[in-house]
Specification:
Layout: E1 8-10, H1 12-20, H2 22-30, E2 33-35, H3 40-56, H4 61-71, H5 73-78, H6 80-83, H7 86-100, E3 107-108, E4 118-125, E5 128-134, E6 136-139, E7 145-153, H8 159-163, H9 166-177, E8 185-192, H10 216-225, H11 234-242, E9 248-254, H12 257-277, H13 296-303, H14 308-315, E10 316-318
Parallel strand pairs: 1-5, 7-8
Antiparallel strand pairs: 2-10, 3-6, 4-5, 6-7, 8-9
Helix pairs in contact: 1-2, 3-4, 9-12
Length: 332
Amino acid sequence: VSTPDGMFKVSQSKVKTWRRCHYAYHLRYVEKLRKKVKSRPLQFGTIVHSMLEAHAEGDDPFDALRAAEETNEKLFAAEQEIYGEIIDDIRQIMTEYFAYYEDGELKFDRRNRRNSEFEFEIELMDGVLWNGKIDAIGRTPNRLRWIVENKTFTRKPNDDERWRNLQSSTYIRLNEMMGWPHVEGMCWNYIRSKSPTKPGILKGGSLSQKSIDTLPITVRETIHELGLDPKDYSEFLAKTNEKLGEWFSRIHTPVNRAVVDNIFDDFMFSIREMMEGHGRVKDKNIDKHCGWCDYQALCRTELESGDVDYMMQHDYTRSSRGDEDLAVTPEN
């Protein structure tokens, strides 16, 4: 149950996994299985987080993108069906993102000579070490402080999902436990992960101006590739620009003290459950969340009495990191 130093390590992601499915928890945190090939949403989120971190620290975020491309070049080529043109998608999306927020609305607080990615480890209760990472703490022009959480998404969470979010309540409490300055709540920095649609080409060689789900940069680059005059598509570009709010948004959720207190109490209760059930409890919770679970295929194979051992060896690897869990968790 415990790590070599005698502490049981927990994270926000670990608790969420326990609550969602004990079998997924068992595979991830007891068997320590990780998929050999990350899903596109997770890979997208990991690269975007590295770019946001570089930008917050005053470095060129596109250097981080180029580094990710070099590191994963063979993987992206071999897994084209999964990833598509992920590097070019991210280049276009993040170019528009940095232009969209070029006014520098958020000013970042510094912690340990950094502006972002604050890793923490704190003894939560006797024998329990809580670890994780806060993306940033930002100040808005009205001088209010917010815990910034960067989230990539295919479907953006709504207000109802945000107010009961485990991460917001636990991190608000963490801020108090660390003795950091007061924060008003959470700033959810949303970035859409969908591939922007490339405009079609009409028979005469001109660009189709049919309404599509895309970005201005995608339209501009297509116009340039075809050698067309951008002035002929100014209205189309203007309409595309008006939809940038569907791709990028920052939503501020103030603290609700009652919600924070109650959710944090439940967080602690779940940790005690985890400690008691770790290594023993592995019942399956089959539901719609299985659609985005890393262990869906493995679980189904076991239910159908298939060759589980082969799938484990072929599709998964065993992590040597222990219980640390600082991975990016994009919204589904």
